[in-house]
C-alpha cells in the first residue's frame, strides 16, 4: 500500500486498513518518518505483525516483549527480567526466529551462564527466565519443538538459612533505640512476616480480639509501592499473634490514635503513619543491632524456633504460608533430626 507525505511537517506516514484478531475492520496510521523508505518499512513490519503475530517465525525479541506486555508481572519483576534480557539474551537470541533456535545454541547459552555467572543459583534464575520465553512461545505462538527439552537443568544449590536463637534476639533487639523499629522487628520475629508484608500493614489488618493480623498485600521495598496482593497466593492468610505481641500492638494502636488528629485506621500504616517507612531506614536500624544477619533472618528464626520446639512440619507449613510442604521440608527439615531419633527409639522399647 502507498505511504504519504505530510506537507505541513515534511514527514512521511502510513495509513492501512486491517482486520484485528476478532475480525473487526480497523485502521492504523503512524506518522513522523523522515524518509519514504522508513515509512514503507514500518508499514510492512506492522502488516507482518498482524498476519503472523502469533507465529513461531517471530523473533525471540518479539515473543519476549509480548510476554512482558501480556503477563501479570509486578514492576519489580518486570524490571529484573528486562535487565536479564538486555545483559544475557538480546545479543545471543533477540534477532533469531523462535523456530530457528537450536539445541546447540541453548547448550552453549547454558555453558555461558555456568562459566560467567558467579552464583549458580543466579545462573539458574536466568536460565529459568530463558525457559519461560520458550514455554510462552510453545503455548501462544505454536512453537512445535522445544530446543531446551533435552538440556540438563542448572542445579539449585541449597544453603541452610541463617537463624538466631530467641534469647539472642530478645537481647539484641533492646539495642534498637527507636520504639517503632523495635516493635517492627519484634512483630516480624514472632510472626514470620516478610519485611514487605509487615511494612504494608494498616490498622484494619489487625484484630485485637481475635489476636491475629490479615495478610493480603505487600510493599515493594525499593519504591514503597503497595501491591494489593501478597508475594504469592498462599501468602494471603491470617497470621496468629502471641499474647504479648497482641498487647504490644494494642498499646501501639492507642498511642498512634492519641498522637494523630486525623488518624484513620483504614489507611494509617501500623509502621509509618500516613505513609510506610522507608526500607533504607529500617535496614540501617536492623544492621546496627544485628550486623551479622539480614532482615529475612527474622522469618527463618521464627520457623526454626517453632520447629525446634516440636511444632509439626505440616503446621509449620501453614504458619509459614508455603504453597507446598516440599518448600517447608526443603528449608527446615534439618531441624527435625530429634523427631527422627524419637521415631527410631520405638525399637528400643
Explain what you see.
- The protein folds into 3 domains: 3-51, no CATH class; 60-141, DNA polymerase, domain 1 (Orthogonal Bundle); 166-343, Intergrase catalytic core (hpI Integrase, Chain A, Orthogonal Bundle).
- The longest helix is centred in the middle third of the chain and has 21 residues, at 120-140.
- The protein has helices at residues 36-52, 60-70, 75-93, 103-116, 120-140, 166-172, 179-189, 195-199, 243-259, 279-289, 297-308, 313-320, 325-332, 337-344, and strands spanning 3-6, 11-19, 25-33, 206-207, 212-215, 218-220, 225-227, 237-240.
- It has a 3-stranded antiparallel beta sheet, with helices on one face. Strands 4-5-8 form a 3-stranded antiparallel beta sheet, with no helix packed on it.
- The termini are far apart.
- The chain has 349 residues and is mostly helical.
- The chain is built from 14 helices and 8 strands.
- Helix content is 48%, strand content 11%.
**Element-by-element helix/strand order:** EEEHHHHHHHHEEEEEHHHHHH
- Note the gap between the termini: 90 Å
CA radius of gyration is 27 Å
Number of strands: 8
Mean pLDDT reading: 90
- The spatial strand order of the largest sheet comes to 1-2-3
Any low-confidence stretches, pLDDT <50, length ≥5? none
What order do the helices and strands come in, and which of them pair?
Layout: E1 3-6, E2 11-19, E3 25-33, H1 36-52, H2 60-70, H3 75-93, H4 103-116, H5 120-140, H6 166-172, H7 179-189, H8 195-199, E4 206-207, E5 212-215, E6 218-220, E7 225-227, E8 237-240, H9 243-259, H10 279-289, H11 297-308, H12 313-320, H13 325-332, H14 337-344
Antiparallel strand pairs: 1-2, 2-3, 4-5, 5-8, 6-7
Helix pairs in contact: 2-3, 11-12, 12-13
